[in-house]
Amino acid sequence: MRTFVIGDIHSALKALEQVLERAGVGVGDKIIFLGDYVDAWSQAVETIDFLIDLNKSHNCIFIRGNHDDLCRDWLLTKKDNPLWTMHGGQATMESYSGIDQKKLQQHLKFYDGLENTYLDTQNRLFVHAGYTNLKGIAHEYFDKMFYWDRTLWELARAVCPNLKKGDKDYPQRLTHYPEIFIGHTPISKMGHVKPQRAANVWNMDTGAAFKGALSIMDVETKEFWQSDPVHTLYPNENGRN
User: Fold this and answer.
1) Would you say 238 and 20 are in contact if contact means Cβ atoms under 8 Å apart?
2) Are 85 and 39 in contact (CB under 8 A)?
3) Is 231:239 a contact under the CB 8 Å cutoff?
């Protein structure tokens, strides 16, 4: 059994199907999704349908992303959110325009079942965005930080490579988990980039919502596979570009 982690999909079902095939993901493998399943490309409904079906045959962990929370809120309230609309929500609204009540309830159940964090048996942390409490996720004051925070990646990138755990200046926030896997903050919006590590944090958001690719990584070996640049799979769409 292998364990895989997948970055932000943003409704790019074609890219998701590519990386699952290229990585040779099998029924016995575990797949940890880091959130942001919707917003950007046109296949929001189809992506959630695919994930619901995939969970019936595979061992899947679904983390909550900020875009998933925004989508759920809109599905429940239909309240206008111009900021969400501008950042991929319009495509999601259009995708959901013809959905029936049965499917809507299935999707709401999926969104309600998303997890804010996941710790594996080796205490590796999987979270969409980050956390802010110096003592770790169990002490986080505001759950929304798990899918909105951007300071964890900023902190990890600022750590001097020569600074080691145990040093008095090493950030306490990074000491609780041997590895942390996040998405949320694109490494680049302009083109092809690989998953990136800073300190003990792996960023898996390789810009699938923009002009990058979707990435999947073997958590143990760090071997990774990527889709074609997502905008080439949806040539008549803008995504979040």
Assistant:
1) no
2) no
3) yes
DSSP track, 17-46: HHHHHHTT--TTSEEEE-S--SSSSS-HHH
Beta strands in the chain (DSSP E): 3-6, 30-33, 59-62, 117-119, 125-127, 180-182, 196-198, 201-203, 215-218, 224-226
Q: What is the dihedral of CA 90, 81, 36, 69, to 10 degrees?
A: -140
Asked whether 72 and 100 are in contact (CB, 8 A), the reply is no
User: Contacts from 97-104 at CB under 8 Å and sequence distance 24+?
Assistant: 99/45, 103/45, 103/49, 104/75
pTM higher than 0.90, yes or no? Answer: yes
pLDDT in tens, 46-84: 999 999 999 999 999 999 999 999 999 999 999 999 999
Report how far Cα 21 is from the mean position of its chain's Cα atoms: 19
For 134-155, the pLDDT digits (tens) are: 999 999 999 999 999 999 999 9
**Residue 24 C-alpha from the chain's centroid:** 20
CB 67 within 8 A of CB 81: no
Contact 180, 127 (CB under 8 A): yes
Q: What is the sign, positive or negative, of the torsion defined by CA atoms of 134, 140, 142, 148?
A: positive
